[in-house]
Amino acid sequence: MVFSSFVFLLVFLPIVLLLYYICPRRLRNLVLLFASLIFYAWGEPVYVLIMLFSTVFDYTNGRLIEYFRAKNSPGRMKAALVVDLCGNLAILGFFKYADFFIGNLNSVTGAGLSLLHIALPIGISFYTFQTMSYTIDVYWGRVPAQHSILDFATYVVLFPQLIAGPIVQYKTIADELTCRKSSLEDFSEGAFRFAVGMGKKVLLANQIGALWNEISGMSELTAATAWLGAVAYSFQIYFDFSGYSDMAIGLGRMFGFHFLENFNFPYMAGSITEFWRRWHISLSSWFKEYVYIPLGGNRKGMPRQILNLLIVWMLTGLWHGASWNFVLWGLYYGVLLIMEKLFLLRWLEKLPAWLGHVYSMFLVVIGWTIFAQTDMHALSGYLKAMFGVGVSAVNSDFFYLLSCNGVLLVILVICSADHRAWLRILLKSRGDRPVSDGNIFDEVQSSPVLTLAKPAFMLVLLALSYAFLVGDSYNPFLYFRF
Questions:
Q1: Residue 460 maps to a domain
Q2: Whole-angstrom Cα distance, residue 364 to residue 460?
Q3: For residue 166, is the peptide bond before it cis, meaning its omega torsion is within 30 degrees of 0?
Q4: N or C: at which end does the chain have fewer Cβ atoms within 10 angstroms?
Q5: 306 and 452 co-located in one domain
Q6: Cα angle vertex 150, ends 149, 151, to 5°?
Q7: pTM of the model
Q8: Residue 1 lies in a domain
Q9: What is the pLDDT of residues 188-199, one digit of tens each?
Q10: Residues carrying an active site annotation
């Protein structure tokens, strides 16, 4: 089940909201737990058992770590943590990387082993990282172990963020799992945020995604058409994933949870370093906190820091998928970030801001091209076409596709920009309180004009999204496959 389906919008969500708010507060986690299991089982009921096993496994290890701490037994604490990490990584590795390993082993040795063809459980990359972060935080003493299996299971399977993130660390919502307040303000802000995400997904990502599908399927490309396709995919993945994150954050808030932001206008970045502070913030934070810093971070000299960055970005690439293009994509960004740390950032600081932006977006578009093509031969051909190797520069197909999608591309550029600056100007001109750099969706209610405009804007977004969903068969969520 996806958020942008009529089953979810017209049946599942209204029923869950009704049951949630009419039942006593002490039963609300139970309602969310069963609703989330139904939500997950809608697509693949068998894999619910794997998720439930992971839930019980991590809950038990968290309690064991707490018990061994009380007994002043650090060795056993560490053993429980190692068992937990190995168990989680073994499950993730088996389902996600077994065929990747077998295929590469066959290529190197000619062993001829049969592939397992195991379907990847939806969301396993996300909920595995969430549960591991919980156990690590219990081991580090950052949070106490959760004693209620019901509350912990609710955290793991919570349907707003279950299958495509953001990666919600237990410590950020631990208090809300046991005691959260529901208010009309939270509900209305959550509904508005959900509508914005729906608009991003249906009105923007789906529409430009159709252009990428058409161009990526062409047998012959020109350099201009290849760049147009790469730009289209760059917009698609941003509005698809940030739209999903907005919907997840909005849904969470409708139920009283406050998830952290996952995107901060990444296409406004003036460097690759800044881009990754703005893109998929929950994943970047996870790798920094649980991999990069434990490896030594930047505390052991530049050579070790470079090695740590390469390890983190290779793992980041592998996390996204069991294919060499993802490894290449991760190392591509690892090398760029190392170069910026060594000298490029100092150069960029001396240049006009717009040049840094052009530099960043040029490299980001190339990065998304690597990300999109899982077949290495197809990737090589597409990159060659982008740089004019063996192809013509432009033809009539390019101008036709550009003319058909020109208005959409302009809208995408506008919607990628940081609108908070425009709202500051608007509020200042009307004498309202200036908008800060925080979450714009939480702050605009201070303006009477925007307070009235928001419900109307939300209704327009929802109406347009519904209309497009009725006639549009192309409705994927790109991050479901990770």
A1: yes
A2: 32
A3: yes
A4: N
A5: yes
A6: 95
A7: 0.90
A8: no
A9: 999 999 999 999
A10: 320
